Amino acid sequence: MMDWVQVLVLSFVQGITEFLPVSSSAHLILVPGLLGWKDQGLAFDIAMHLGTLMAVIIYFRLELFRMIMDFYSSLKGKGISANARYLWFIGFATIPVGLFGLLMKPVVETALRAPWVIALTTIGFGLLLWFAEKKGNQTREEKDLNWKDVWVIGFSQALSLIPGTSRSGVTLTAGLFRGLTREAAARFSFLLSIPVIILAGGLEMLSLIKSHEIVDWKALALGFCLSGISGYICIYYFLKLLNRKKLFPFVLYRIGLGIFIIFRFYF
Fold it and tell me: Which of 51, 53, 44 is nearest to 6 (CA)?
């Protein structure tokens, strides 16, 4: 049975960090370790991921509806619209992370969860995000996406399997390098999270079934709701922030977090 404080903290951590370029996996590894909590278990992880999945689906519900309807029309031979093509982009950009996830799952769940790995990736990919924002021309919008963009962002997303990298961070970085605006890169990154969360949740569900883990349904329900609510709020305000502010504060946060991890675990 989980402590309610643990449920509240982890749910908000998942909801907020899933969509910010700071790595949710790193925070969900570090926070319980720093606070002396036992592992929250697969069932609770699945509930939190489903919560953030619902957040992004609800936020982009209108865009997703148009994409699905146009995609269905394209299958009936009525031509491929911009919305249908965008859904194809999301699907193909998910292929690399799906393949790498199946191949690297044992390594990701063991050796790559070490604090020094998280510290280095947190700092390194934070600096890469800063460099991408400085060098990217940020003139292209979502309508300007092409297949080269899709594959570059898709393969970069596979790097997010390494804790500390940040799925949203690395896809945002790749989008900026390809000349997308901050908001366009972030929106594509958020929509890419839908199939990724579904795939990750499916793998976790299989592991949960095999483990026969005892389920605390009240904790799961609360974790689902809180991670979903905090995730939705995070998406809303982060997109607004990107219209006015640069990403450097997140870079500074990542550098500070990485340094903290190094001193906390190795000194």
Answer: 44
Give the mean pLDDT of 22-45: 84
Give the total number of structural domains in the chain. 1
Confirm if 21 and 166 have CB atoms less than 8 A apart: yes
Mean pLDDT of 198-219: 79
User: pLDDT tens for residues 13-29?
Assistant: 999 999 999 988 888 88
Whole-Å CA distances, 133 to 26, 58, 167, 185: 23, 29, 17, 11
pLDDT on residue 188: 96
pLDDT band at 233 (very low <50, low <70, confident <90, very high): very high
Rg (CA), the chain: 18
Dihedral in degrees, nearest 10, Cα atoms 251, 253, 258, 259: 110
The pTM of this model reads: 0.90
* Residues facing 140 on adjacent strands: 180
What residue spans of 20-166 are helical by DSSP H? 24-35, 42-59, 61-75, 82-108, 115-135, 147-158
> Which domain covers residue 156, as residue numbers?
4-266
> What does pLDDT average to over the chain?
90
CB 222 within 8 A of CB 124: no
Q: Which residues pair with 206 in a beta bridge?
A: none
Encoded tokens for 92: 């193909």
Q: Which residues pair with 180 in a beta bridge?
A: 140
What confidence score (pLDDT) does residue 1 get?
67
Taking residues 199-217, report their average pLDDT.
78
Q: What are phi and psi of 179, to 5 degrees?
A: 90, 10
Q: Is 210 left (phi over 0), alpha (psi -120 to 50) or beta?
A: alpha
C-beta of residue 231 within 8 angstroms of C-beta of residue 55: yes
